[in-house]
Amino acid sequence: MPHTTVDYSESLTETFDRRGFALALHPLVATVISTQTAGCRTYFRRIEEAVVADGGPEQAVIRIEVAILSGRAPEVKAELSEAVLELARKHTAAAPGLIVQTSVEITDLDRASYRNHTEGLV
Predict the structure, then answer these.
(1) What is the pLDDT of residues 8-36, one digit of tens each?
(2) What is the pTM of this model?
């Protein structure tokens, strides 16, 4: 925890630095919500087809969902959302001919039912 899922338009494959984004995201999230980077996970899903706005080929999207354990104050979620949005913008190079819409949503993992197990090298 936290778990981040990033959906991005196929047209951004060359301009969205996904690995750089994730490596910068983990310490940022850990700082804002007071957790450890060891529990951070980021998953990327390329969108092969989407209809954005008027459906024109110049439309592209990056949609980021950060799921964190429930109980965080709305102000903390807002701070995290703003920081993640800015980070995504920094890791997306100019894409000539594209209009990139980037959004961030902070969601709750139910603290009462969320479970995690890590096994492997020590």
Answers:
(1) 999 999 999 999 999 999 999 999 999 99
(2) 0.93
| Separation between Cα atoms, residue 68 and residue 111, nearest integer Å | 9
- 109 closest CA partner among 45, 46, 40, 62: 40
pLDDT of residue 48: 92
Sign of dihedral through CA atoms 99, 13, 95, 80?
A: positive
3-class DSSP state of 34: coil
Compute the distance between CA of residue 13 and CA of residue 46 in angstroms, rounded to an integer: 8
Percent of the chain at pLDDT exceeding 90: 91
Q: What would the two tokens of residue 73 be?
A: 């104050």
Average confidence score pLDDT of the chain: 95
Q: What domains can be seen in the chain, in order of their start residue?
A: 3-109 (3.30.429.10)
The bridge status of strand 59-69 relative to strand 99-109 is parallel
C-alpha–C-alpha distance, residues 16 and 102, integer Å: 11
β 59-69/41-47 pair status: unpaired
